[in-house]
What does this fold into?
Amino acid sequence: MKHLRLSILGFGVVGQGLAELLVGKRTLLQQHFDLDVTLVSVANARHGFIYCEKGLDIPTLLALAAQRQPLTNHPGVKHWANALEGLRATGGHILAEATGTNLRDAEPGISHIRAALTQGMHVVTANKGPLALAAQELLALALQHHVQLRMEATVMAGTPVLSTLTEGMAGARLRSVRGILNGTTNYILSAMAAGRDYADVLAEAQAQGYAEADPTADVEGYDALAKTLILAAVGFGHTLKPEQVFRKGITSVSREQMRRAVDEGKRIKLVASLQAVSDFGESPLEARVEPLALPLSDPLARVDGVLNAITFQMDTLSEVTIIGPGAGRLQTGQGLLADLIAVAKTA
Amino acid sequence: MKHLRLSILGFGVVGQGLAELLVGKRTLLQQHFDLDVTLVSVANARHGFIYCEKGLDIPTLLALAAQRQPLTNHPGVKHWANALEGLRATGGHILAEATGTNLRDAEPGISHIRAALTQGMHVVTANKGPLALAAQELLALALQHHVQLRMEATVMAGTPVLSTLTEGMAGARLRSVRGILNGTTNYILSAMAAGRDYADVLAEAQAQGYAEADPTADVEGYDALAKTLILAAVGFGHTLKPEQVFRKGITSVSREQMRRAVDEGKRIKLVASLQAVSDFGESPLEARVEPLALPLSDPLARVDGVLNAITFQMDTLSEVTIIGPGAGRLQTGQGLLADLIAVAKTA
It folds into this structure.
């Protein structure tokens, strides 16, 4: 049996989702993967970092989080106000980085990831910021310290996209990518295609928890843009700056445009795309996030509601499409779990 | 640089496809995967087994195969009439098993695979027979000899299905599978949906090389059945016997049934399915291959022509669908190549 000591930084929806899976999947991990995971530390922004040498009790942590009580109420823990200091002082085999995405400077996630890799910890992450802004730097740092950095959960949650691209299709060369990478906007556009108003649907999506109170990151395409940057790094080995991606959100899509598309047998989708370009100008990649009217013969056109989808054009496989959930507590936790299992094989 | 010595048994379309990729991808394998592959032996049924200590010249082999000349015309080779004896006498790090599928007794592939695993060689295979009939025996044999047995190319060619299931979604539990796993029948059914006759389309598919002169294995559902057996073993850890799968081919689909389905907004597809059943009778799995009329809201309904698709129901991910090519020289070779790269990581 392999014993791994895990730290989870960021204990919101995603961090809790992973923790919940570690409880529910404990027997499966032992029986199928010969793997035993001990959660030794957890941090959130409000209560700081807690550590317990012999392992934290996950049900206790989940109950504290549900009741919005301080994590320090967990019995027998050491406490640091600052997660970075706590992580440096205590370590472990794997960091699961699950703090919120920040596309300005990727903090605090990027500091957590740098610290973990530098001290020889593997990292699995659901945080889009660090990978969107600095994938190549961080992957090089992981290589330098002989540890893995995996990020399945950053694109389409636990739907296997990045591992499928780099491992499942290993040896194939990526030519282009097109994807519906944001569930909130797809939910809104799907409802608009059925005749509803943008404002109504947005309000409903907010009430159901599909959209944030401030929906800018979703509806203006920033979330899809972050995932596009990650795909550029993972799929093409190329770091794009956010401003190198043409970006147009869905707020400009009118009811009239939507009606016309439906009349023409098309569906308007927020499409993220990357295309290798042959004339090497400033960048060898053309990257775009924009609403496009797709014919129904397009495999992305009928992907409705909060579902996500991605189509890869590969040299040896022509076109491969993957459709699946793009968000959610357990769905995103699943991405971290699969990465953790992959790390365990080599750790 | 890791140097691997490879044997390819079976040098038809699939074996040649892998060989072609090894030439075309040589630089990529070296640069991205730090991997150098030397093809040391090849066999086909007609000319037996050839071996060259310092490596065979792949372009020479491909030219001989294209001209239907004996492989023994390759300069400087040792020759065995029997592939099994040749393999035992010469060895290597990896066997790529690419002989034809035989669902009666899985020979000669199963003997090749057993011999390779027993002598400590990793195996990657595109041959459905051995995995359909004896997946669990062979996987146990691989485990016993501390080598890998990988089979991505057996289901949907190089479209990443099996690795996505076991690695990309590691930790998730499979509840059910539904797939369009045979390109020939999907090509025929797609054309019939457009109003054409079964016999006409079959003749055309045969002329274009999509269907065999004897189309039984495809149109009666045996090919899809073999893949269903492999999915049962890989996805559920359960070996089904062929006779435990309900099987109905497409020859009984009438023009009238097809027209009625289209009128109702449905598409008839040859659907392979596996479903975990709760009342444990003879088998914990219900397995079926049969033509079904699917509503257009089903992600499988609009998968047309020779494309294949599979939908997994997973506990943590609800539904994940993968669409891609299901056959072809380079497409199947790609599956073997990805497996070979995965083996190299641990070899």
In short: The CA atoms of residues 22 and 341 of chain A lie 11 Å apart. Chain A has a mean pLDDT of 95.
